[in-house]
Automatic annotation (TrEMBL):
Protein name, entry field: histidine kinase
Protein species of origin: Niastella koreensis (strain DSM 17620 / KACC 11465 / NBRC 106392 / GR20-10)
Keywords for the protein's UniProt record, in alphabetical order: ATP-binding, Kinase, Nucleotide-binding, Phosphoprotein, Transferase, Two-component regulatory system
Organism superkingdom: Bacteria
Family matches, as SMART domains: HATPase_c (SM00387), HisKA (SM00388), REC (SM00448)
Modified residues (4-aspartylphosphate): D672
Segments passing through the bilayer: none
Catalytic activity: ATP + protein L-histidine = ADP + protein N-phospho-L-histidine
Annotated Response regulatory domain residues: 624-739
InterPro entries, alphabetized: CheY-like_superfamily, HATPase_C_sf, HATPase_dom, His_kinase_dom, HisK_dim/P_dom, HisK_dim/P_sf, PAS-like_dom_sf, Sig_transdc_His_kin-like_C
Amino acid sequence: MEKNISITNLDFLSGGGDMGKRIRNFDWGNTPLGDPETWEQGLKTCVRIILTSAQPMFVWWGPSLISIYNDQYAHFLGVKHPAALGAKAEDIWREIWDLLLPKIKSVEQNEGTYDDSMLFIMERKGYQEEVYVSFCYSPVPGDDGTMKGLFCVCTDNTERVINERSLQTLRELGAIAFDEKSLQIIYQNVAEALSKNNKDFPFATVYKIENTGRIAEATASTGANNKQYLLPAVIALDAPTMETRDFCQAYDSNKLTFAEIVTQDQEIPKGEWQKASTNFVYIPITAVGSSHPYAIIFAALNPYRLFDNSFKQFCELIGERVSLEINKMLAIEEERKRAEELEQIDKAKTVFFSNISHEFRTPLTLILNPLEELLNQPTNNLSAIERQNIETTHRNAVRLLKLVNTLLDFSRIESGRQQASYTLTDLVALTTNLAANFRAVIEKAGMQLIIKADTVIQPVYVDRQMWEKIVFNLLSNAFKYTLAGSITVEVTAEGKYAVLKIIDTGVGIPQAELPHMFERFHRVQHVTGRTFEGTGIGLSLIKEFVLLHKGEIGVESELGKGSTFTVRIPIGKAHLPQQQIMMNDLNEQEGILTSTMFVEEAGTLLVRNNKVNDVPADRNGLPLVLVVDDNADMRDHLRSVLMPHFEIVTANNGQEALQKIQQQPPSLILSDIMMPVLDGIGLLQQVKANKATAHIPVILLTARAGEESKIVGWETGADDYLTKPFSSKELISRIASQIKTQQIRTEAMTDIAEQRNYAKKLEEMNGELTKMNEELTSFAYVSSHDLQEPLRKIQMFSKRILEKEINSLSDEGKNFFYRMDNAASRMQLLINDLLAYSRTNTSKKHFEKTDLNLLLAEVKQELMEKIIATNSIIEYGPLPVLSIIPFQFKQLFTNLIANSIKFARPDVPPRITIKCEVVDGQKIDKPTAVAERKYWKISVADNGTGFDPKFSEQIFGLFQRLHGRRDYEGTGIGLAIAKKVVENHNGIISAEGIENEGATIHLYLPA
């Protein structure tokens, strides 16, 4: 009951918000407290404090403990408010009265109490709830000085306590050692971490998915006896039962699933509670890139906690945390396996190098020995040209043997089988003799060899064959990159080290390259030198030789001034393995052969005197061919092959070739790719960029074989491309063909004036057609746009009638309105597609460089609702950056992906795969394809309903549909738009499909 009372002389009841008003209007006369005017001063004071406080407070007064409280405590009471006002405390808190009674007794003894975050199971929200309250009870005296009431200040800590408990569980999961190699151990650790929070999870069982997703098997549990409850130990995922259907649903959806289970007679763990839970959750442990989990946590939920958004997010975080860490562990394990596989591959590569190097030596011996016998015969009938060919063959066979020996040394070091034999050596004499082998070739190049050596160096133990290779490799490198000046060899003693320095006045090394000079297979790019040839393992190999001597090697360099390579090895033998110190001397024959190989290779780098060929004679008007190669033997060979058919001029590198082109433009350029100063690619680019020389055909030669290398050669703009070794007949044929083709092009240029006039007329006609097309497009756009306004009104008013007059309409009337609304929606879809189609017909085409990966990501984002709703999977590899009309291509991707999702087979999640590659025009089975052109081929494939192959052309027509409207919504314009977009980009579109297996749309765009 309520009673309006005046607050005259009742100022203690003023204010207090809603509860103040309720207290003032309450009929206190029907309670043991009586009229507020008669209340004792202690009660008035308590009420005044309560109404003016922002803290939850209440006072219980009198023998019956009548309750008075403020707004803040009213929120705490929940559904017990407002009935709790003026009620007995025992009636309000009947469910927890046994816990409160001892504290009330203490207050009656005039002793206050305080409890911090005490646990209660309350029913303040319509269900039993876990609540944590910090509160203090204080006695309040009456006018006679005896204890008449109980005053309480309290704080609801439930949210804080539960959040701290959740965070602690997540910390426990984070502390698990996820680097374990056994998933079984990890699952047991996860179960143990969850067992420490048996308030939120009275029990839990981890099921691992086995047999490629066909069964789930319990692998770890919490709770009494550490076993699974309610569900079987093994669950057949493809045959759900009443018990397991929720589990199977969680597996199929790969999402957290909540379920209510009414327990029957089975005794299940209760954790810290007095009753068992009837609410359960299935938490999937998801695998990256998979639509199904590889484990599921089945857990009972806190029976005194509502499964609200906060509790759901906590469970999801558990799944995400465990999934993340297990995926990381599996990735690390996969990387470890990959590293082991790479190590095995590396070992196999080393064995291969070793075996193949040995196998090469036998045929090389059978090549070299007969050649040497022929050359060393005192008398033979060889002509000068024959002798020159044999010398060239011998020289390159020796070079090949050097490469084989280098590979053999490299493989021995890789496998750890390289053993040095150290002998006491006069390092000064040995190094001086080795360097002297290079004097003739260095001086022939117009440079100076300087040898500086101490007369006496303390005893030095070296493997003489390794020392030879160290000296020869360093001298060979110095000669290759020194075009003028000198090369200096210094041998000195510095403290306890014997020091070798090779100093040159060559081109130098960029500072950024210095840290990488001794790395295997590293080569400095775009550097001037006598040649670009080499394996890239020479310096790394000699570093290994130096390390076997317990020494060190370094390099200092400055661009344009030269380089200094320094080798330091310890003096004496204390640092060397005693079992490898030998008394035998150097194998003279091995030393002679090694020096021959290095010196002869250096000799081939010298530019030979070809002045007789620099200014070609007029031999009956033969076409002039410019041969560009840094290898002298190759230049001589090409000249000898081509001389009978063409006039020949040679150049040592691309820069020299450009100078000769200025002197006399050739009919064709035949160039190696890898050369110093300016390589073949650079030469090609400069020739094609110059209008005066762009018409000259260029054929590139390279030692790199393979289809990929050919594609790279053609993509650089070369007219033709040949891989070494090549047939002489093929080379002559290709050169003649290119020259003939260029002559035909030149003759065709005479008709240019006439063609231009004709082109001008065509341009005028095209202009008129374009104008007409734009007018039609504009008309279609405006018409479609104007149709939308009345259509919107039809939709709006029909929906309003359905909303407001639904009860007054007959069933037939409702049916008419529903059919009208559906028809309007279909018309709206049709108009939108017509607008899109009209936009693709415009002549205003603004092409932009666009990353198709980013464009596709935008399309996926816009279609995300459809993708998620249908469990669609979209896979695509790297896509190129193309010059396109962005909004049109976005429309194209949207239509194709939306089609694939729409035409999915029942119960088969759509899988859309987008691939990209470069293809030749001649491989495209379409009459509009240009055979000589390359195309980007973008394929969009799905696993949907597909179509009969006989309709592969028909589906691109306007309003063409292969399915009825009742089966699939749509206007039949989507693929027509796609075709128009591709045609606007001068491309080609085609389709292929198989019924009930899927369809693939192929886009071909000029590369």
